[in-house]
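Session log. Operator J.P. requested a structure for one protein chain; no other inputs attached. Running the standard single-chain path with token output.
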Amino acid sequence: MSNTSNATIAPTINSNELINESIRQINTAKIALISLALILSATGVFIITFTIIKIKRLLNFTNVLVLNLCWSSLLLAITGLVNALSDINAGFQTWQFGDFACRFIKSMFFMVSVVIAYTLVAVSYARFRIICQPFRPPPERHYAYFVIAAVWIVGVACGIPYFLSLHVIQLRGSPFCSFNTVPPALNLDQRKGYLIGLTIVIFAIPFLLQAALNISIATAMSTGKPKIFIDPKDDKIAGVKRQLTLMSIALVIIFFVTWLPYYILILLQTFGHISLLQFQGDVVLYYQNVRIFLLIRDLLSGLIYCSSIFNVGILYIFNPHFKAALKRALYCSTPHRRARVESEVTITERSMSVVSSMMAGKIDMKY
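Structure written below.
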């Protein structure tokens, strides 16, 4: 990591000890935050999984992708907790879990970010097919498994250069998960290019794809061409489609709001605009601004770890099928309640695709 500018005051031994104590306090708060996020995220993911699996008609293309989205976010929260535990047990940026775990857990962040970005693109594409191409059957469920396999392959491929660039080094008896300087590891200039490329792959390309898909959806729904329901007076199906479209847009907004600021912080640190520590022989010194950086970093990473919680809220607010099915799965203890909630679930994506198929003369269609 590059040295600080002349304006940065190098710490003395005493100030370094004070900074160490501040770092321990911050890491303690970080573990509490991530643990809470992990518990809430796990609860939300299990609720979504239970609901979708229990209500078979919800096990469709879009919701299989939503499951992948939620479980990927939960996996990221678990790796974040491992990072925080390493920090508090041995000190800031130290590592106690071995060389492979150093490579795997640190690179998992980039892998999962790719997976989530392109899973959201696939969810928006499903909405595009249903709304803008109503005479075509929606993507069948088994295609979702191919999409999941493809995005994970791409995600792992994007994370391999980072994986190969890390190793554990020993400094003054403490292990650090740091960048290697021996090929095939990336040097500093290559890491800069790698992070810029990742930013384009994770944010720029998905943003353009999402913009194109959602503009097409908005145009189709506002102009009514092609028609998306048979009876102009019956806007119930159109209302459901609007809600599902809002769900897709909300998931995309949450992704950019929670992930992009953290990536910007990584880029600033990689390009030398933020310096945290330096090595003088086998002595590690922290800069005075490390506490402010840690507070900002942990706040932004906390938003990422809480993304599964946000996803559950979005599904419950914007997806009427999920909301009704969740009520049926958890609260329907009497036949009267079951009958009432069952009526709320009758209009599903399958029923909407059947309407479109009737218009096209394709009654016998699998979903």
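Operator note: The beta strands are 166-171, 174-179, 277-280, 283-286.
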